[in-house]
Specification:
The protein is built from 5 helices and no strands. The chain is an all-alpha fold and 111 residues long.
Length: 111
């Protein structure tokens, strides 16, 4: 499921939702989504590190936040997220993991 930023940027789709952005841009977009969707008042997207733990770390997101974030990712990227398995929890652990998951899922859906 892991794609390099180069590989993700090389396979562009004609579909705007499935279009693959460079990984840094996707990470920035996810950070903005987290702050906006979860209505975080004490943190800006720029303060969220790509490798920082989203749950149980400095950000301090909880299970309700995970559900809300999952719904927003589903709406924005058209990605179906299965029940909270260990694999899904790993995808949601950091912004970088989420970006890789979204890029890989979009890649698989256009293949």
């Amino acid at each position: 499921l892991l794609l390099s930023a180069h590989a993700a940027s090389q396979n562009r789709s004609k579909h705007p939702i499935l279009d693959c952005w460079p990984m840094d841009d996707l990470e920035t977009e996810i950070k903005e989504l987290i702050v906006e969707a979860l209505d975080l008042e004490d943190i800006t997207p720029e303060e969220i590190g790509s490798e920082e733990l989203l749950f149980g770390g400095d950000i301090g997101l909880d299970s309700i936040d995970a559900l809300e974030l999952g719904m927003e990712i589903r709406k924005r990227y058209g990605i179906k997220i299965e029940a909270a398995t260990d694999e899904v929890k790993e995808h949601f652990a950091t912004v970088r993991n989420l970006a890789r998951f979204i890029a890989a899922t979009r890649e698989a859906s256009v293949a």
